[in-house]
Structures are given as structure tokens and as C-alpha cells.
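Question: Hello, beginner here. Any chance you could explain the protein record under this note? Any guidance would be welcome.
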Amino acid sequence: MASKENELILLDFWASMFAMRVKIALAEKGITDYECREEDIVVSKSPFLLQMNPVHKKVPVLIHNGKPICESLIIVEYIDEVWNQTSPLLPTDPYLKSHAKFWADFVDKKVYPAQFKIWGKKEGSQEETKKEFIDILKTLEQELGDKCYFGGDNIGFVDIALIPYYSWFHTYEHFSGLSFEAECPHIIGWAKRCLLKDSVSSSLADMDKVLEAITEFRKFKGIA
């Protein structure tokens, strides 16, 4: 564990794409000496989580020297600013930085609610939802263009915002019948490039485990 002078604790939930963002950012900075505390966000949130994030009461929370930082994109930016000696995640140019923040915000405002409709609805009632989700991914493909990553030659802020969703793609396909390889091949190619990085492959949840958990959750909610 890190010394008390530079103590890091991450409040985590294994399937949370938002917590995965933080783990990728820490790994990109070469930070491995931190405590990762798994939270039960479905049944029983810990008193410590409620103390550290009393407003939203959710993960991730990064606690640095006893001070909590909440909301995944804010945490990633914090990590980039504090550990700024290597692997920058955001551009220094103000315009390029604002551009990256715009697309990361696009992921939060568009991808997250659309994907929730994919696995949170009964099969056969989601044609409009499937089209919406594919249109969003195609918009991201246009932004990606012929670049290796959204950040250019190196993984950056937008890549970290989006790539955790890839661990859920198998679940989306299972409940929707979509084929992302066929519909959005450039996004899949980008995702596979991201997975070649240890920071990403070591941080993403197992696809089969996510599907199993969501299948059980749907049964619990009476969706299946």
C-alpha cells in the first residue's frame, strides 16, 4: 500500500465502465500502488462509499491523501494533472483539450443512456433503440477517422472514456442481435488496438462475466 503521504484508494465495482476508466488512467501513468476496494453497489453500499460520495452515492471514487474525487471523467483529469510527468491524457493546447472534453462528454450523454436501453429492454421491442445506438457509434467512427486513437497516435482522454464499454459489447449483441463487427468495423478495429495496451487489457471486465451478471440482473428485474 502507498505511504500515508501519498495514499490512493479506489472505490470500485468490477463491471462499472466508469471505474474502468480510472484504472486505465492510473495504469497509463504507471501507478500500481493503490488499494482497490470492491463495492456492492446493487444490494448494499458501504458506509465508507456514502461518506466519500454523499451526493451521488456511486462509484468510482478516488481517495487521494484522504480527499475524495468523484465522477470518472473528473477523476481521469485529476490523475492527468497530478501525475503530469508522463503519458499525458489531455492535450495542452486549449482548443484541442476542449475538443477532447466535448467528445468524452458525448460518450457520457449519448452512449451511456443508449446502451442502457439495449440491455434493459425486452427483446423484440428495441428496433429504434438499436438504430439509435448504431448511429451514435457511427458518429464516433467519423470523429475517429483514420487515426489510431481518438487522441491521435497515443491513447487519450476520449479513448479512456469510451473503451470500457467494449467489455459490454458481447452483452449488447446478445440482447439485441446486433453485430458491431458488421455495423461499426472501425470502432471494433480501434477497440482491438486499445486492447493491445496492457493498461486497457488489464483494466476491462471479462465480457462473459458481464453477460452472466446482466442476465441475472434482468431476471431479478423481470425483464428476461
User: Anything to note?
Assistant: The beta strands are 8-12, 35-38, 61-64, 67-70. The chain has eleven helices and four strands. The mean pLDDT is 94. The radius of gyration is 18 Å.
